[in-house]
Amino acid sequence: MKLATWCWLSSAVLAAYSFLVAANNVTEEEVKDEPAKDNCPLRLESRKCEGDECPYQVNLPPLTIQLPKQFGRIEEVFKEVQNLKEIVNSLKKCCQDCKLQGDDNRDLGRDGLLLPGTGAAGGADDNSVTGLESEVNKLSSDLKNAKEDIDVLQGRLERLNLVNMNNIENYVDSKVANLTSVVNSLDGKCSSKCSNPEQIQSRPVLHLIYNDCSDYYTIGHRSSETYRVTPDPQTSFEVYCDMETMGGGWTVLQSRLDGSINFTKTWQDYKAGFGNLRREFWLGNDKIHLLTKSKEMILRIDLEDFNGVKLYALYDHFYVANEFLKYRLHVGNYNGTAGDALRFSKHYNHDMKFFTTPDRDNDRYPSGNCGLYYSSGWWFDACLSANLNGKYYHQKYRGIRNGIFWGTWPGMSEAQPGSYKSSFKKAKMMIRPKHFKP
Ligand SMILES: [Ca+2]
User: Fold this and answer.
1) CA of 346 to the centre of ligand 1 (A)
2) Is the pLDDT of residue 245 over 60?
3) In this entry, which stretches build a coiled coil (predicted)?
């Protein structure tokens, strides 16, 4: 019994060992006889699988021992080992292929054309290179064409700019030429005939800005009337134009005719102007300033006494400053028949004097207001050798010399204190551009 047991056990171990070593050759049928050929007719049999269970049995006649089914795991392990071996072999082969391919690519690279790895054969790479080359050439050609197109367009643009500038210049030149010819033709017509201003007016005349009455004269107006002037782009107003005296074109600043208008007025009245443009009026210091500030103006003063004597004074220089400068008077270069009363003497000189009104004392008389004393707004010194805004007297008067006064009028200053004083029937102040030729 002891011998039998040992024999069985050793046979079993040997059978298991032989099974492990010679797994490749193990079949379902058997592992027979080798270790215990003689004494131990041992057999290990794998029985037919029934489902997952493939139990093994060891036959040791007459003994048969059932082995646990887990014993079959050894067979599974060998199968897995076998699979792994196959995988390793395939990977090894794959690596050899990769190496060969890498060598091929390196050979191609030496020829200067190493292309992105597509794994494609050399012939395909050549085709790809050729295709790309032609594509690059095409793009290069397109780029060249585009550059030529840009050059052409740029040339056209420059020509267009040049043409446009030329057009504008030509347009401006032609307009200036038209204006010049219109002005010249009007000037020629007006200075020669001027018999039919309506005929001239009926023609289409370009609208010009009329700074003063001389501009209306220039375009053919010959009737002494009120006209609208624009001496400043922001300011236009009505004025009375004298189109008869000494050729015409005069803008009238002041007029005395009949005493219908009281000239004893305030600063504001003299600033804005007052009266009736067709009769007696003061145009207004602001307007006089505007009319004299942009052009050199001359001043003409016409006087007529109650004896019908008419004289005039002409000043080649006339300018009135703005309100901030108290409408300071600038007057000079006298010529005429009435005498230079505005610049009578060193002590009586109205040139460069401020404007004074009864309510605003800017004069050089320290003890009082010349404007208040002489009932007038004027460029008083201390106080006067002329005052064309004095009271209107219809005949000789006595007392303070507050009537219309012109100190150089024949016989006027000779009157003794307390005696009757002469006055004027008419007085008029008007201006015209210095370089105006009627
Ligand atoms: Ca004073």
Assistant:
1) 18
2) yes
3) 129-163
Domain hosting residue 326, numbered range: 213-433
pLDDT of residue 261: 98
Q: Say yes or no to pLDDT of 280 above 90.
A: yes
Stretch 365-379: mean pLDDT: 97
For the entire predicted model, the pTM comes to 0.55
Nearest CA among 289, 358, 294 for reference residue 325: 289
Domain CATH for 242: 3.90.215.10
Average pLDDT, the chain: 79
- In the reported structure, the alpha carbon of residue 355 is separated from the centroid of ligand 1 by a whole-number distance in angstroms of 11
Cβ atoms within 10 Å of 289's Cβ, excluding its own: 20
C-alpha span between 136 and 142 (Å, rounded): 10
**Residue 266 alpha carbon to ligand 1 centre in Å:** 15
| SS3 state at 90 | helix
Indicate whether 307 belongs to any domain.
Answer: yes
349 DSSP assignment: B
Task: Report if residue 191 sits inside a domain.
Answer: no
Q: How many whole angstroms from 377 Cα to the centroid of ligand 1?
A: 13
- pLDDT of 114 higher than 90: no
**What is the C-alpha radius of gyration for the chain, rounded to an integer number of angstroms?**
65
* Coil, helix or strand at residue 305: strand
Going from the Cα of 269 to the center of ligand 1, the distance in angstroms, rounded, reads 20
Q: Give the number of other Cβ atoms within 10 Å of residue 16's Cβ.
A: 17
Query: Is 90 a domain residue?
Result: no
Range from 20-29, 179-188, 401-410 that averages highest in pLDDT: 401-410
For residue 380, the CA-to-ligand 1 centroid distance in Å is 9
pLDDT of residue 7: 41
Asked if the structure places residue 340 within a domain, the reply is yes
Domain count of the fold of the chain: 1
